[in-house]
């Protein structure tokens, strides 16, 4: 007889996320006037939120999104939501990457919760992001950061433990299980009786030092938690393997700013962008973005382009990124006539310039040999690019419908990679159609709004299950 977990897994479709991200009822937040956002009624497109799953009405959710997008608090008062004081929620993360800022602003703008974002450090040494915004609280880190040597960063923040003890929140989200701070915070919160959820992108215990060396600590933290928030299918499967009940695994899909990462509005703009960046005109431009590490599979994409026949009409590969392999890769390109004519390595691209490189490109190539997600796929699909990705990126299970919104090839097989690139290069109609469907997929299921709603659903369903909500107001009166 099959176990309940096996039966539950078998019900999950293989080409879609395990459960769709939480939806806004019948409300979609779409591009509006003057840089704002407006709610639009399109109920036929939505099947994502189970009836009664959220303790508020679509009209309230629309105002939350509008307020957050405009960078201010919603005009809703807590009394209009039928509650007294909204619960104080603290999310503790190792760092605050730029791509999390849009969904963070939505959570900060929600009148349903008093949300705070704490981080263990302002940055890590393998990142070149700027400092987090002023509304993110940074604690002193007593840990070790060896990320610049492609090793782990282990953060330990006694100040976080003191602050939790001095000002206990109503609810906490520990945004990773591999950090010593989260392991100890879970113990502190358990003793205080404060419920917490884990947030995890991990797809295996092998993904962290703690998971490899002390898996019993991870399992103990998971048992203490009230559930886990994951971005997609692979990390959900990992949570189930760790013993989390299926009803306590919540999906908050990874997302990027879909307004910043957008297609060129016209061919003229694309040509002008290529000229501004000094990129070749008149060729199919294939972009690949990532740290130049062995695990990212850049050797495979170079092998694929090296094997292409020498032809002026061949696609041109643009590699944006820096890392330990850069010198080796540049030397290989310089010494090989085929690669010298068809490959450019531009090095690290600042965050503010990255959307222009996507806008100037035609195809995105992601040859990774292992990735617990692969956020560059979100960026490329939001920018309307046809994507060719290896199946070693966990994000492909959720983002790409193979042959429809992108192409998935076996990892470590340059020939398959080459065939997919050539096919898209030669068929512009197919390429353009895949790009449109890719952006549509991201807009509908992987936007910052969907991510924020995933967190809100996880918070309120858990608080309701634990009996921590004073009121269960599913409908709010009209406002203004």
List keywords for this structure.
480 residues; alpha/beta; Rossmann fold; 2 domains; 7-stranded parallel beta sheet; 6-stranded parallel beta sheet; 18 helices; 17 strands; 37% helix; elongated; disordered N terminus; disordered C terminus
Distance between the termini: 57 Å
CATH superfamily of the largest domain: Glycogen Phosphorylase B
How many domain units? 2
Number of strands: 17
Question: How many DSSP H or I helices?
Answer: 18
Give me the side-by-side strand order of the main sheet: 5-4-3-8-9-10-11
Radius of gyration: 23 Å
What's the architecture of the largest domain, going by CATH? 3-Layer(aba) Sandwich
Shape: elongated
* Mean pLDDT reading: 83
